[in-house]
Amino acid sequence: MKALREASSGRAIEVIDQTKLPFALQWVTLRTAEEVAHAIKTMVVRGAPLIGVTAAYGLAMNAGAYDLLKATRPTAVNLAWALDKVRTSRDLWAAAREIAASESEACRRIGDFGLPLLEKARRGDTLRVLTHCNAGWLATGDWGTALAPIYAAKAAGLKLHVWVDETRPRNQGGLTAWELGEAGVPHQLIVDNAGGLLMMRGEVDVCIVGADRIAANGDVCNKVGTYLKALAAKDNGIPFYVAAPESTIDATLASGAQIPIEERDGSEVRGWNGAKLFPDAVPVGNPAFDVTPARLVTAIITEKGVRT
Question: Which of 26, 108, 243, 288 has the highest local Cβ count within 10 Å?
Fold first, then answer.
């Protein structure tokens, strides 16, 4: 499946409403740039590569909506990258379509380059992988980034077990669990803070995550909680890989310290899916991302190869 498709009715797109998953699979039609911007801002559409692709189509719908679309999410660099590519093209719709196709192919190639690294990390009959957030086809449009090598491993016949972080507060781990379940990949959903214990027990062979922005020095910005997993992996001698297309690399930033970290509304922490967890009066901090220093990253896997 793909998370975005062009509507048969004309110049519109259809996307999976990811706020409804994993309980219901619903498609939403986006016909205007304003609808696209709202879908990105409210995380109906999420994942750095898919945000970029969706925004590209939004700009094709309205060439004057550049600022509106760019302002929706500040951290994922794919957003501005895709908008800039479309804005400088003669045929905006064709440019958006090309970005969607190229990102899909990039993710497929990430799977190809990542598979040998996962095979090398395996320490027994079963390859035991830990991942954080959702970096599958739901987040990219097709294949995925961190999940692409896992899907490639399954296709190659490797015996797999994936530890899936819940990824509070938006619980994107539930999306990963849904994807893996649909693909028939054995997995277990775990609370975010369980990963360190699993690594210490020797129950994890390798960690692999996606990224929302990578600085020129190799610092990686990803969903909050990634940094802690990288620290635990380093302490336990476990490879920590980051999978992302070249469009996620921001060569204009010298280090991760310059990456803007999105601060989201506290309501995401106080409740989820209509259920109240904490009273409205509880003060909340809700940074959506953190930065993992390059020294903790074993390698970055892109469609062009493996960067160490």
Answer: 243
3-class secondary structure, 7: coil
In order of 7, 64, 124, 127, the CA distances from 133 in angstroms are 28, 33, 25, 19
The sign of the CA dihedral 298, 241, 304, 217 is negative
Q: Which of 142, 205, 212, 290 is the catalytic position?
A: 212
Other C-beta atoms lying within 10 Å of the C-beta of residue 142: 23
Residue ranges of the chain with pLDDT lower than 50? none
Is the C-alpha dihedral spanning 216, 222, 225, 226 positive or negative?
Answer: negative
Rounded Cα distance, 60 and 89, in Å: 10
CA neighbor of 40 nearest in space, from 86, 257, 32: 32
Q: Strand 271-272 and strand 126-131: pairing?
A: unpaired
At 275 the pLDDT is 87
Count Cβ atoms below 10 Å from residue 41 Cβ, excluding itself.
Answer: 14
- Which pLDDT belongs to residue 123? 94
Give yes or no: 212 in active site. yes
C-alpha 166/C-alpha 175 separation (Å) is 9
40 within 8 A of 51, measured Cβ to Cβ? yes
pTM equals 0.94
Q: Is 119 helix (H, G, I), strand (E, B) or coil?
A: helix
Structural domains of the chain, ranges and CATH numbers in brackets: 4-102 (1.20.120.420), 110-307 (3.40.50.10470)
CA proximity to 44, closest of 206, 132, 170: 170
Pick from 280, 254, 255, 257: nearest CA to 267: 280
- What pLDDT is stored for residue 274 in this prediction? 82
